[in-house]
Design a protein that fits this description.
Helices cover about 25% and strands about 35% of the residues. It is of the alpha+beta class. Strands 1, 2, 3, 4, 5, 6, 7, 8 and 9 form a nine-stranded antiparallel sheet that branches. The protein starts with about 25 loop residues before the first helix and ends with a strand.
Length: about 210
Amino acid sequence: MKIADLRKSYEKAELSEGASHADPLQQFDQWLHEALQSELPEPNAMTLATVGNDLRPSTRVVLIKGYDARGIVWYTNYGSRKGQELAGNPWAALQFHWVELERVVRIEGRADKVSDEENEAYFHSRPLDSRIGAWASPQSQVIAGRGTLIANAARYGAQFLLQPPRPPHWGGYRLQPDRWEFWQGRPSRLHDRLVYRQQAGHWTRERLAP
C-alpha cells in the first residue's frame, strides 16, 4: 500500500460549542483525564516547538509535569537546544496527540522558567537514576559515544551517592497559554476545531473550518 493511499475515518466523538467548557483549562483538564482513564500509551507526552535566533523551528517530545491557571510545566536541561532557543525567544507551542481518542490539543504562549523552589521540589521527587542522569548528560551536545554517558553516570553516582543535588543547568519551564485549540476527528474530514483566544482578560471561543 502506498502512503498516499492510507485513510482513516474518524468516528469516535464530537466537539460542540454547547458541550465544551467556556474555559479552555477546564476543557483540557477533561480531555487529559479522559486520556488517562483510557490508559493510552504516554498520555502525558507533548510535542514542544521552539524557534531559534536563526528563525529555524525545532520540535521534540517532552512530558507534562503539572498544569494550573498559571500554565503548563515541563522540566529539562537549560543548556539543551530547546533551552537555548527559549532563552532567545520565549514564545513556544505545545501539542498533545491522543491518537486512540482521535483528539489533538494545540497550545501557544510564552514560556518562562519556574521558581527555584518548584525546581528543587520536583528534582528531589525523581528516581535516583534520573537525578544522576541530569548530571551525566550534556543534553544536545556532541559526545564521542554512549560510553561517555555511562562513564559520566558512574562518576557522578560515586560523587553524590544517594543525594545528588539539583544541577544548576536543570529546571522547569511554564508556558502561559494565550491560545488553545481543541481538535476532534469527525467523518468525511469535517473535523471539529474550537479555538480559544485570550482577549481583554477573558477567553473567546470560535469554531475553525477543518
